[in-house]
Amino acid sequence: LRPAELGAVRRKLKLCQDNAAETLRKAKELSHVVVVTLASSGWVALSCRSFYQSVGRLLKELDVPIIYAQERAKGLQTQYNKAKFQADEDLERYWGLIKGLAIAEEVDSFYSQYEGQSWKNVLSVGDSCFERYGLLAATSAYMQDKMLSTGASTAAVWSPTQEGCWEKVVNGHVKKLRAKCCKLVDQPDVDELAVELEMVARWLDGMVRLDDGFDLDLEVLESEEQVEQIESVLRGERPASQLPRPPAPRR
């Protein structure tokens, strides 16, 4: 690259890095934060050293756990390849469940601070279908009192806004789980990534505090009107079922 082109690339990467850092800081102020990835061990540290040095330092400063989901699966680790993993429905479901198992373990650990504590508020932010399916599979299985596994499962995978699923009375206590998914654009360019990170940072407070589950897919956004629709939901002015709709989860 010529010096001018290299400078432009560095400026764009810095904007993405700054927006990612702001998102992390806000998330940490509002909640317990965990990074769950299907990549091979060490990928996060390597990526941060190469592109996001300040984000790497911030992850350590904020003491954010990095969970490599493949380490908790049986068998050898596989080089992460999103396109290959999504090549067919069964493979996509399998890797979604691998991520779901890691999500479930981390959520269960967090919500075990006192006897009888139940899952309450689980938000997933990521750019692939795996965390979305993993989140919905883990939370749906929890509400059905069923074990999540990569084998045959009898647990249905529910939409976060599906009625009659996410609240019930157990031993005289109301058990309500808010499953929240914010799926980012798949394989964004650097400009799209900077914009969506800024949007997530702006919306985080509303997403965390909303007293309902939701299924938000930034891939479907096409207009400012849809952005206003999202922000209206996050302010509690509309039901979460009125968010721009993502595709139904695969079964």
Describe the structure.
- By secondary structure, this protein is α/β, with parallel strands linked by helices.
- 47% of the residues lie in helices and 12% in strands.
- The protein contains eight helices and seven strands.
- A three-stranded parallel β-sheet has the order 3-6-7, with helices on both faces.
- β4 (167-170) and β5 form a beta hairpin.
- α5 (89-110) crosses α6.
- The mean pLDDT is 90.
Task: Name the descriptors.
251 residues; alpha/beta; 3-stranded parallel β-sheet; two-stranded parallel sheet
Low-confidence stretches are none
> What is the N-to-C succession of helices and strands?
HEHHEHHEHEEEHEH
Structure annotation, total helices = 8
Overall mean pLDDT stands at 90
Beta-sheet strand percentage? 5-15%
Radius of gyration: 18 Å
Helix content: 40-55%
**What order do the strands of the largest sheet run in, or round the barrel if closed?**
3-6-7
- Classification by helices and strands: alpha/beta
Q: How would a textbook summarize the main sheet?
A: 3 strands, parallel
Tally of strands: 7
Shape: globular
